[in-house]
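Trying the structure run again after the queue cleared.
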Amino acid sequence: MREEGEDFMKKAVCLFSGGMDSTVCLYFARREGFAPVAVSFDYGQRHEKEISSARQITAALQIPLHVIRLAFPWKGSSLLQHDDKVPHGRNPEQMPKKIPTTYVPARNAIFLSLAFSCAEAEKAEVIFFGANAIDYSGYPDCRQEFIAAFAEAMKQGTQTGVEGKPVRIMAPLLHLSKKEIVLLGKELGVPFELTWTCYEGNNRPCGTCDACVLRAKGFYEAGIDDPLVGHAGLF
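Done. Tokens:
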């Protein structure tokens, strides 16, 4: 954490879905003394509840939000093909062993590319990325190896990189369990009631998709009630 008296207004771009992890990451960036610019994506996913959450949270914090609209005409994911069912009832301990149908091909590479473009334009020094490689669904683009390789590619292919001032990627949640993420969020004052994690777009979380199962695991193990469901998970 920065010491008192240092510059507290350095800019950061935060990839921000409005979900639990990205919200904790956003609040972490603010605690570290960065002035965040949030970037969200409307890419044809199954619902817009996360984007609605992103708007509410950034409005409450009075920070700028860019919502970028993309189209994936080739689909390739159950998050994009609405007639396909997303996985339900998977064991969280088995998730990383098989990439689920909710994986969107190269999604994080695309999102990070746009975040780097925003960072250069905004003169931001850091991109905050809420990836997690401990309690996660098995996405290959949420791992340390991917993040390090992508940062190196951007170092070689951006103005800031070749001029010796590369934009860094910070992934402070990467090696945290969901329990630790929930506890960090509580410490940071994250409004969990405004976040949305569920892959389904119903009035309440479904409780059985991968995202809901992992969120429930975190709240249960942290011993904290999830305000979206009124209890500490289903475990």
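Strands lie at 10-15, 34-42, 65-69, 126-128, 168-170. Worth checking whether this holds up in the mutant runs.
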